[in-house]
Each structure stands twice: as C-alpha cells, then as structure tokens.
Amino acid sequence: MNSENQFETIILKILESDPQLLVAASVVLVILIVIGVFFVKTLKKLFSDEIQTPPLSEKERLKKLEELAKEEEELREQRDEAKLQKISEKEDSAKLELQQQEAQLRERQILQRDIPVEVEPEAEESPTGFLDQLKLGVQKTREQLLKTIGETLQGKKEIDEELLDDLEEALLGADLGPETCERVIKVITEKVERKELKDPKVLQQAIKTEITNILDKQYPAVGTSDAKPLVLLMVGVNGVGKTTTIGKIASQYVEDGKKVLLGAGDTFRAAAIEQLQQWAERAGCDFVSKEAGSDPSSVMYETISKAVSEDYDVVICDTAGRLHTKKNLMEELKKMVRVIRKQIPEAPHQILLVLDASTGQNAIFQTREFLEATELTGLVITKLDGTSKGGVIIGIVNEFDVPVRYIGIGEQIRDLRPFDPKAFADSLFI
Questions:
Q1: Burial level of 198, CB count in 10 A (0-12/13-18/19+)?
Q2: Does residue 215 have a pLDDT over 70?
Q3: From CA 202, how far away is CA 120, in angstroms rounded?
Q4: What SS3 state is found at 150?
Q5: What is the average pLDDT value for the chain, to the nearest integer?
Q6: pTM: predicted TM-score of the whole model, two decimal places
Q7: Closest CA to 210 of 230, 196, 225
Q8: What would the pLDDT profile of 369-416 be if each residue is shown by its tens digit?
C-alpha cells in the first residue's frame, strides 16, 4: 500500500472514531465551496464588463474631442462676455456721473438766471511773465505729478522692472490715462534696454521729454487762416465754461482790432443766450440770437449771413451740450455744419471742444463722444488752475491726436492762453 492510501485510511479511521470532527470538516468544506463560487462569479463579471466595453472608434473619439473643444469655447465666451459687461458697466457709470453733473449745473443755472452778473474790472497782467503765470496755474497738477514720481524714485539706485511698473502706476495716478502711461513706459524701457538710461535720477527728465513729444505736434494755429470771416464753432457739455471761453476769445480778437460776431446756437437754455449776450456787451462785439427753443441751425444761418454781408473778421458760434441725448446732438451738429457750409463752403474753419480739466478721465470720454458727432480741430482746456487733474491733457492729445488750442489758467480774460506745449511741459516739472 502506497503512502497516499495509508494517509486516507488514517483520516477515515479518525473521522469514524469522532463523529463531531466529521461534521466540522463537512462545514468547512461547504464554506470553502461557497467562497470559491463567489470568487469565480466576481472574476467572471469583471472580465465580462471589460469585454462588453469596446474601445471608442476614431469617429467617436473625434466627436468627443469636438464636444470638449466646444465646451472650452463656451467657457471662453462666457469669460469674455463677463469682461465686456464690466467695461460696459464702467462706461454706463461714467455716463450717469456726467448726467448727474449736468443736472446739478442746470439747477444752479436756473437758480442764478435772474441774478445780475457783476462784471469785475479786468486786472492788469502780472509782471512776472507768462511762464510764471502758467506755473502758478498748473501748480496743483505739478504737485500731484512730481509727488507721485518723486515717491516712486525715492531711494532707488537702479532701473529695474519693478521700478518701471511702479512708475507706470504713478503716472496713472497723475491722470495721464492708461494708453499714455503705456506709451511713456515703453519709450523709457527701450532706452533702458539700449543702455541709454541707467540712473533713476534722470527718469524724470526722460518723462518730461516724452510728454513734450506727445504734446508738441505741428498744427496750424487757430488764427492763421486767411478766411474772412474766420468761423469758429464751439462745442462741449454744459458747465465746462464754454460760454465764458467764447467771451474771452471774442475779447482777445476785439483787442487785436478784429470785427467779431457771436452766434447764440445753444437755444435750449435761455440762460445760455443771456450769458452770451452779456459777454458780447463786455467784449464790445455784436451778437445774433433767437428766442429759446428756436432751431439752432436757423441761428447759424442768420449769423453767417450777417457776417458775410457786413464784412466781419471773426464769427464764433455757440452750440448746445446735451451729451445725454447723443443721437440728437450728433444730428444737430451735422445740420449746423451743413447750414454754415452752404454759405461758406470751407467753414467752420475750427471746431473747438471745450473741456473742464477738473473732470479728469471723464474728459477723455467726452472727447470720444464728440468725435463721433463731428470732426474736431482742437481742444480748449478750462479750469486748470483749480485742479490736480491737468495731466488728462496729455492723455487726450495722445489718444485722439487732437491739438490743444487754448488753456484756461484763471478767471481773467487774459488767463485764457494759446497753448504752448513746451512751456506747459516745463511748467509741470520746474
């Protein structure tokens, strides 16, 4: 008998001698069988799932990729829409702010309409000269600009990327506007890369040079036209000093011996007609107007007809400044220009936009709106003496390529000055 048979015989004898042991062995065997069956079924199911999930075909894979790409594109569009919405909200906020300012100005004008205007005697020009007057007029702007630049450069020993970033933020704080700041920093960065600029101490002079380059563009002066009459069309929102500017320009032409005629084209405000008439009397020039509510173009027609027939040298025409009705404003300005050109084809010889420097970046918004309505040949920046936001002049000229013709640095007639780019840049950094 071999060993296997002997082992089986021994096991059988043990189990026969102890029935309980036989039962226990049977239970263990059943448990092992159940576990084995469960294990086999699980493995079979796993292998079956793998077999039943065939790999994607090339066509299906491409379709899946297209779906993923479409989802990414939709997310990108949503992000872009969110950005555009933010920009739109900022523009709407700026428009609302302007409308509120106009409403407040209209309320003040209505309250003051019947108050007689006391004309103070013209003070003699300060003997300190034009540059000193200009320095005094832009003092707040200069202090703001030099303060921000000075604080940025303080303690710096080299020109690095961090300094240039800080300098760009400083220029933004001086109301130069993002596009202009980017241009100035780009020019300075290029000079640094060419090793032309190394010392932070010379950065201020480099900024001054670039600002002068932006402002100092060659444009024909306002009064250089040989046309007779020379026709100026003044545009701008209410409250920027448009009527006062017209009066001051008229006074200067009269002092130069010119025969001047004013046209009251802002027929939507009775106060505007009255104020312009008062300035005409003060300047010693003639005046054309119609009752409030009349068609502005009819006033232009009568003004130009009178100027041509009576041999005037200069005609200055006022217009309405209702920015919140932009469509009407555009059509109105276009119609006025057409009426003027029917009698003098090359007129108006200058279309000047009057801006209040104290409105800062809102002045850029106004310039953009009026450029949509009509062509502009120049800007008049008023109230420079009362604000630290005069740096906006640089931003407007750089962004729109429209020259500054006059700046207002005080209340007197002679404080409205022809703009000198170099003198202005010098006055900001002296």
A1: exposed
A2: yes
A3: 46
A4: helix
A5: 78
A6: 0.67
A7: 196
A8: 888 878 899 999 998 877 778 788 888 988 888 889 998 888 888 888
Query: Which amino acid appears at position 350 of this protein?
Result: Q
Separation between Cα atoms, residue 221 and residue 52, nearest integer Å: 86
Residue carrying structure tokens 């104020």:
275
Tokens of 367: 């310039």
State the residue for tokens 């802002």. 266
What is the C-alpha to C-alpha distance for residues 168 and 171, in angstroms, rounded to an integer? Answer: 5
Length of the chain in terms of residues written: 430
**Encoding tokens for residue 13?**
């004898």
Per residue in 264-315, pLDDT (tens digit) is 999 888 888 999 999 999 999 999 999 888 899 999 999 999 999 999 999 9
Integer Cα distance of 418 and 275 in angstroms? 23
H helix intervals, 53-129: 58-112
According to DSSP, the β-strands at 260-263 and 286-288 are: parallel
Kindly provide the residue ranges of all beta strands, DSSP E only, lying in 338-418, ordered along the sequence.
350-356, 378-382, 404-408, 416-418
Tokens of 9: 């015989």
Q: Do 352 and 405 meet the contact criterion of CB atoms below 8 Å apart?
A: yes
Let me know: does 352 contact 235? Beta carbons within 8 Å: yes
Which of the four pLDDT bands, split at 50, 70 and 90, describes residue 117? very low
Among the residues of 154-202, which ranges form H helices?
A: 161-173, 178-193
Could you tell me if 405 and 378 are in contact, meaning their C-beta atoms sit under 8 angstroms apart?
yes
List of residues 6+ apart from 409 with CB closer than 8 A: 133, 134, 136, 137, 138, 384, 385, 415, 417
